[in-house]
Specification:
The complex is a heterodimer. By secondary structure, chain A is mostly beta strands. In chain A, 14% of the residues lie in helices and 42% in strands. Chain A has a single domain, classed as Immunoglobulin-like (Sandwich). Chain B folds into two domains: 35 residues, no CATH class; 173 residues, Orthogonal Bundle (Hypothetical protein af1432), CATH 1.10.3210. Classes of the chains: A mainly beta, B mainly alpha. β4 of chain A pairs antiparallel with β1 of chain B, so a sheet runs across the interface.
Chain lengths: 142, 267
């Protein structure tokens, strides 16, 4: 990748770290990691000890999206939609990980994992009205 | 994190080496050892290795014995308290299933994520039969409650066991790492499970046992604080409590409840 292109990607990634807001829930994208073994926690995370794995025979991997969430005073009571992940072909990937109760003004670091075919090029991470360009973030190596 | 005492002592050069270390040196060595353990990828057993362990006839019990019949990790059997003459489901939670943290966590999550009451009830009951028996606990567990709960609840309990082996991206259900340890890294579900999976996958009620498996994954938090209280009304609405008491109503599963009332009965 040319130096100037890499610079643009880094700039784009920095811009992506601007928080998105869904009904009073402020979300900041922190990173994307690929792996075969992930911790399964809701958000806010507790002490659940279960981990999910990709079995050796599969051609899948987990794409784990790390975020920081802050419950603003304007947070609308009620369920928060589960996050979804899109790839460049607009295929949607789901997770069972859920948002739980988020006390006002609280901030949490959370990670949501999605089972995707190995090497899938990611596009967007969406929580209700908040959407983030994870593709650029990943290209920037975050 | 559990520390293998022998392995730790070996890692510092043996008991003699440990004996001459200062407290600070021991603490440093322990911290270093724990970091090494965390960094090292876990080696999971194979199916053959697990089967070889079953040849050990000196074990305290076989793997399939229910929790009421085997010692706890502390090495002692659970105390068995006398139950009311006409025990209700809540009595079993108090006297036989307690602390029941896993099923309470599972049902709590189902409630908080807005699942229908029959599924909340299924989550609450899906593993209680493990107090009696472990193998094929989906089938045993469904049979235990079938005379008393909605058909959807029975269906969800019966088939959650099978669906646990099959990831589902639509529902975000993942294969649990613990199954590598329990069944072996190279385990493949037996043909009866594969047949059952295919049948349930195409059933109009597939979603119900699948939701039980999803909550199952997120309900192993040792520090979670849960109680039966949020479920008392749901039990009241959906669990047909027999007037004679569970175990004494001559239903097709009365004998199973009696087995849990009297786990010390010889015959």
């Amino acid at each position: 990748m040319a130096i100037w292109t890499r610079g643009l990607v880094v700039l784009a990634a920095a811009a992506l770290q601007t928080p998105g807001i869904h009904k009073g829930l402020e979300i900041t994208l922190k990173g994307v990691v690929r792996g075969k073994n992930v911790s399964l926690q809701d958000c806010p995370p507790g002490d659940n000890i279960v981990r999910g794995v990709i079995r050796p025979v599969e051609k899948n991997e987990f794409a784990t999206i790390s975020i920081e969430v802050k419950a603003l005073a304007s947070l609308t009571p009620g369920p928060i939609p589960k996050p979804v992940l899109y790839d460049e072909g607009d295929n949607v990937y789901k997770t069972a990980q859920s948002f739980g109760e988020l006390p006002a003004s609280s901030t949490y670091s959370c990670a949501f994992s999605f089972r995707v075919p190995t090497g899938t090029k990611l596009s967007r991470f969406v929580v209700g009205e908040a959407s983030f360009d994870v593709g650029a973030l990943e290209r920037a190596g975050k | 994190m559990e520390i293998d005492r022998r392995a730790f002592i070996a890692s510092v050069g043996g008991a003699a080496a440990l004996a001459v270390m200062t407290s600070e040196q021991k603490a440093d060595a322990l911290e270093r050892y724990m970091h090494q353990q965390l960094d090292a990828p876990e080696k999971f057993p194979t199916v053959a290795e697990l089967e070889a362990k079953n040849e050990d006839l000196g074990r305290a019990s076989r793997r399939g014995a229910g929790n009421l019949f085997v010692p706890t990790r502390e090495g002692k059997l659970r105390p068995i308290e006398k139950m009311p003459d006409k025990p209700a489901l809540l009595d079993f939670f108090q006297y036989r299933f307690a602390p029941a943290s896993h099923v309470l966590q599972s049902a709590t999550r189902a409630l908080k994520t807005g699942m229908r009451e029959e599924i909340v009830l299924a989550c609450l009951l899906h593993d209680v039969v493990l107090n009696m028996i472990h193998p094929d606990h989906g089938w045993w567990g469904a049979q235990l409650v079938e005379p008393y709960v909605p058909e959807i609840t029975t269906f969800a309990i019966r088939y959650h066991q099978t669906l646990r082996f099959y990831p589902d991206t639509e529902f975000g259900y993942e294969y649990p790492e613990s199954y590598f340890r329990t069944f072996g890294e190279d385990y493949q579900p037996e043909p009866y499970l594969q047949r059952t999976y295919e049948k349930v996958r195409n059933h109009k009620w597939y979603e119900h046992p699948r939701l039980v498996t999803v909550n199952d994954l997120y309900s192993f938090d040792r520090n979670a604080v849960v109680t039966i209280d949020p479920f008392v009304d749901i039990i009241g609405r959906h669990f047909k409590q027999p007037a004679e008491g569970l175990g004494w109503d001559d239903s097709p599963s009365s004998h199973m409840w009696r087995t849990m009332i009297w786990p010390d009965r010889p015959l």
